[in-house]
């Protein structure tokens, strides 16, 4: 589990201007170091190797890169608008942090700033031929990076912001969050399966919004310092407000209640106005479902996208059945589990409702539930049976008799797996 400062640093490094700032530092460093490196080069080397061309090259870079940056930003904004309109607005946060887009645009912007600094340095008239040659060599390296970035940008533009690209980004974000949670299902703390002790004191968070990150290491440090046992009442993705308890604490009698530790505990919980994909696997699943719902709306009428998403959901949820022995890193913290039933509730009922009258969607939904039930009966078959029955109720009066018979055949297979799994548990 990453700490709050590591999480904030990750958010900071996703900003577009970070790489551009590095190019600016490269330009300033080159301008300052060129006069120091030039005297160590052989006399006349700069004049022989075309150091006079550096100013022309930098001028071309400055003018062309400014145009490229402006054009690329226009393309990026258009892609954001297209994704928000055809996919869902929730995908724009992933498009903004797309590594290829950020690196390419940062390279273009940074090379413009580098060339601008180089032109200013040359205009000062303090460089010898060898000094200009040092700047020329660095400029050639920057040009090589720009050429590579342009080729990469052209290839990336063929898919950037399209439906499949957006779906892949959401699936990857959901998979990363889910894999992290499955590897550490209780975030390194104790599993909280029993009710929270009645004598535990509630602690509310002063902010209103979505819980985005829990700094478990900081909670453990505060608990050790103040002699506390901490019981989390929420998970990342939960909506919190000042009238609800985000956690409960028990005191072991080693410290007095000063109230200060409650403020410290709240500082370890990061709350934002929007949900974040990082520690919240259900958000990625909910965004995929939102895309499927929009695709099934009468205005769009794209059941193929919903069918595609059901396949992605099976791929995402399948590892949930793997048995993992959780490591206890924070012995003073108890964490509630992420329930399979909640994940199913995020996905299947909205798709079943939106595609109630579309046989292709309903049969894929039933087969997806059957696939999960077969992959891990003890984990998936109970929520799969519930969602299968609910989906049948939604579409029963909207299907032809032949279609209903095919749906009922798959639903009966899920029910049979549920029965056999219950018998095996009893024995």
Top keywords for this entry?
alpha/beta; 16 helices; single chain; 427 residues
Whole-number mean pLDDT: 84
Tell me the series of helices and strands, N- to C-terminal: HHHHHHHHEEEHEEEHEHHEHHHH
What level of helicity do the residues show?
55-70%
The main β sheet shows up as: 5 strands, mixed
> How many strand units?
8
Strand order across the largest sheet: 1-8-4-6-2
| Cα distance spanning the termini | 39 Å
Helix tally?
16
**How many whole angstroms does the radius of gyration measure?**
29 Å
Query: Quick one: overall form?
Result: flat
Q: Beta-strand level of the residues, as a percent range?
A: 5-15%
Low-confidence stretches: none
Q: Class by helix and strand content?
A: alpha/beta
List the helices and strands and how they pair.
Blueprint: H1 4-13, H2 17-37, H3 45-48, H4 54-86, H5 92-96, H6 99-123, H7 129-157, H8 163-183, E1 190-191, E2 201-204, E3 209-214, H9 216-226, E4 228-232, E5 239-240, E6 245-251, H10 260-267, E7 269-272, H11 281-296, H12 303-317, E8 333-335, H13 340-354, H14 359-375, H15 377-395, H16 401-426
Parallel strand pairs: 1-8, 4-8
Antiparallel strand pairs: 2-6, 3-5, 3-7, 4-6
